[in-house]
Write a structure and sequence with these properties.
Keywords: Membrane, Transmembrane, Transmembrane helix
Low-confidence stretches: none
Radius of gyration: 17 Å
Strand content: under 5%
Number of helices: 8
Organism: Epilithonimonas pallida
Number of strands: 0
Helix content: over 70%
Largest sheet: none
Protein name: Phosphatidic acid phosphatase type 2/haloperoxidase domain-containing protein
Distance between the termini: 44 Å
Shape: globular
């Protein structure tokens, strides 16, 4: 897909940059906290996510870009992604352990995120599946579990995000589809588990 329109390229870049996986997850966590917790409860739940997941991952990517280990903040190189996936998977496992110690319950959202990342790491040995597409589809499922309309909107947004990744030549159509398939599988499992376990 060869797009030469400066306007389309600029819009694609804005969408792709804004809806990166970390930002999309933060938006979901804010919305979930707003719906389900008081400010005090939300801060107790969100601060560990911020300190153990979001900030360390952002710092890891930034430092590796600065050192030249990663080509860019998207970590577009397939070989470079191996260390990124390992770091994020370890971070999610650490968070799950700390969260279980503090609350004596499993955070199913983060557990399924961890499983999604493990599957993405496995797929990365064969194809550079789109993290933007994959994690945004998973975020769509998270939203769908508490507000189906937002979930559907976010799924459609994920399709647009996938298209922007192709337009910007960060991924091929096959890589976007691969990320989508993995995410849809994990998302369906999550939605079934949410219905069976949480409700």
């Amino acid at each position: 897909m060869e797009i030469n329109s400066p306007f389309i390229l600029k819009i694609s870049k804005v969408i792709s940059n804004f809806f990166n996986p970390l930002v999309s997850l933060v938006i979901y966590f804010f919305y979930y906290s707003y719906r389900n917790y008081t400010w005090e409860e939300a801060s107790k739940k969100f601060i560990p996510i911020l300190l153990l997941l979001i900030i360390p991952i952002a710092i890891w990517i930034y430092r590796n870009v600065k050192k030249g280990n990663y080509t860019n903040m998207d970590v577009s190189n397939r070989k470079q992604r191996h260390s990124l996936y390992i770091f994020i998977i370890v971070a999610t496992i650490v968070f799950l352990a700390v969260d279980y110690f503090l609350h004596r319950e499993i955070d199913w959202t983060i557990l399924m995120l961890c499983i999604l990342l493990i599957l993405m790491q496995v797929s990365n040995f064969f194809i550079k599946s789109s993290m933007h597409t994959s994690l945004n589809i998973y975020v769509a499922a998270l939203f769908f579990a508490i507000n189906p309309m937002i979930g559907i909107f976010w799924f459609l947004l994920s399709v647009v995000i996938g298209i922007t990744r192709i337009i910007l030549k960060r991924h091929t159509p096959q890589e976007v589809i691969s990320g989508a398939v993995i995410a849809i599988f994990v998302s369906l499992v999550y939605l079934i588990m949410v219905k069976a376990i949480i409700f």
